[in-house]
Amino acid sequence: METQAFGLAHLWTQSDFAIRAVAAILLLMSITSWYLILTRGLRQLRARRSEGAVDAFWAAPSLKSGLQRLNEQAPDSPFEALAQQGAAAAEHLRQHSHRETLGGTMNTDEFITRALRKSISMSTSSLESGQTMLASIGSTAPFIGLFGTVWGIYHALVNISVSGMATLDKVAGPVGEALIMTAFGLFVAIPAVLAYNAFTRANRVELSELDAFAHDLHAWFCTGARIAPVNGRTQPRAETARLPSTEAA
User: Fold this and answer.
1) pLDDT of residue 69
2) Does the predicted TM-score (pTM) go above 0.90?
3) CB-hemisphere CA count at 13 Å for 31?
4) In sequence order, which residues have a C-beta less than 8 Å from that of residue 202 and are 6 or more positions away?
5) How many CB atoms sit inside 10 A of residue 38's CB?
6) For the chain, is the Cβ count within 10 Å smaller at the N or the C terminus?
């Protein structure tokens, strides 16, 4: 019956400031990691629901309707931001390229490229938001829990030496309670590490798709046509369809 006194409640009542501080830090880290996991997970679900938005954009009859389709199917997504940035850069060139100014003499290819790169950089920063925190929690939580364990075992041994009773029933309880801190540290770290790896892979795939979309946008804004996909040994060629049209923008 005495073993029922051992556990988290007994550990908390018998622990000192250091153990309670470690437990509070691990609890805060756990809350933070699960908040990031849920928010980033919801974002990934929204991204999967808008997978066909890029195809819908290229199937639109005009640039304006294509941007509208992106806004409807993938609102606030990196793909919408990329298309909006490219369209804004193309419109800026159309309005100012005829003027005898420094901006009017700017190369179209370079200007569009810079605009698309800026959008991709901002999207990358947004996608990687919270990743550093998850990595930090996953790498440090086990060691914080281990520190609590070492500290708890030290004080348990001190108390045993003071009482002069080193029997198994007197040692197992305090040492077992101290080991709870290690388990708590692993409980915090494992979900953070798994989520970090999953989100890193998902971000890498999304950025690859975003880069491909940027390549198509760059080709279209600079030449008026997309680059056709390569099938087998067929060499790349410009598509004859000029979609979407900039005149409706």
Assistant:
1) 87
2) no
3) 6
4) 44, 47
5) 11
6) N
What are the pLDDT digits (tens) for 71-92?
888 888 888 889 888 888 888 8
CB 19 within 8 A of CB 184: no
Torsion of CA 135, 141, 147, 149, to 10 degrees: -150
Alpha helices (runs of H) in the chain, residue ranges in sequence order? 8-14, 17-49, 53-58, 63-73, 78-96, 108-127, 131-163, 168-223
229 touches 215 (CB < 8 A): no
So where are the chain's domains? 2-225
Residue 32 identity: T
Helix axes 168-223, 17-49, angle to 10 degrees: 30
Give the Cα separation of 217 and 153 in Å (integer): 62
CB 188 within 8 A of CB 75: no
Token code pair at residue 189 = 């770290």
- For all residues of the chain together, what is the average pLDDT? 78
Which pLDDT score, from 0 to 100, does residue 228 have? Answer: 63
